[in-house]
Write a structure and sequence with these properties.
By secondary structure, this protein is of the alpha/beta class. It is built from ten helices and 15 strands. Helix 7 links the parallel strand 5 and strand 6.
């Protein structure tokens, strides 16, 4: 079988099944697993998929800018934010990172809540100015306007001064094998720090972000303690996250 034909078959399988198992694909195509793995490496280099242990999954589509996401109507993200905000309790210290869903979590915090929020997202801090019971700490640093967050050594040094009960992490892509991944390296340091400095790590991800991957790994999937997602996420897909010990809030 010609390489182009073989790789086209792999991409069709990825589109129809949502994943590729190297062993199963080799048997189906009548070639060796080494041949399939070489094909997957080439397809990954071309940007058409993301390799994971034992095979491959779709590469996620890069998200829109922060301003575009904040303006867009997002009823699914609103419901995720409301469910996530209900996890916060009085007396807790909460990390909230950037992203439109995290902003909605801030908006959804109960007016009766008495807690502390630490964030590197100016929009989150601004939204909580009028909250009567929430103390807000905003990390300084250079503002990345595309991401809507502050970044750099000043930011991470400030965030490292806190230990959170819960970190609410906006997710670009989450896969049981590939982990929590993002499309560019700028936010690696801040997201990793928030995760490492928190007792509970709550990933905020609608169904479209599950089972996909970007090139930059923030953390393995089992670093997440809780996943808040929407009703579109299939039960079979969520079972893989439950096997990692992740609590699902749907």
């Amino acid at each position: 079988m010609l390489k182009a034909t073989r790789q086209d078959a792999l991409l069709r399988q990825l589109e129809s099944a949502g994943s590729i198992g190297a062993a199963e694909a080799a048997e189906h195509l009548g070639v060796s697993e080494d041949t399939v793995r070489r094909d997957l490496r080439e397809l990954e280099a071309a940007g058409t998929l993301q390799r994971v242990h034992g095979g491959a999954i779709p590469r996620a589509t890069p998200p829109a800018s922060y301003a575009q996401r904040a303006r867009a109507a997002q009823p699914g993200k609103d419901s995720i934010a409301q469910r996530a905000a209900a996890l916060a309790c009085d007396g807790q210290l909460l990390f909230l990172d950037g992203g439109s869903t995290a902003l909605n979590v801030a908006r959804s915090l109960s007016p009766a809540l008495h807690a502390t929020v630490v964030t590197n997202a100016p929009a989150v801090a601004a939204l909580l100015i009028d909250h009567p019971g929430v103390t807000v700490y905003l990390a300084g640093g250079e503002l990345n306007k595309d991401l809507g967050v502050t970044l750099g050594s000043d930011t991470t040094r400030f965030l490292g001064s806190f230990r959170a009960d819960i970190s609410f992490i906006g997710v670009c892509a989450l896969d049981p094998d590939a982990g929590l991944t993002i499309p560019s390296p700028q936010e690696l340091a801040t997201k990793r720090l928030m995760i490492s400095q928190s007792t509970l790590v709550v990933a905020l991800a609608d169904a479209r972000k599950l089972g996909h991957a970007f090139p930059y790994v923030v953390a393995p999937a089992d670093a997440v303690t809780d996943l808040v997602t929407d009703s579109e996420a299939p039960k079979q897909q969520l079972a893989a996250y439950r096997r990692l010990g992740i609590n699902i809030h749907q």
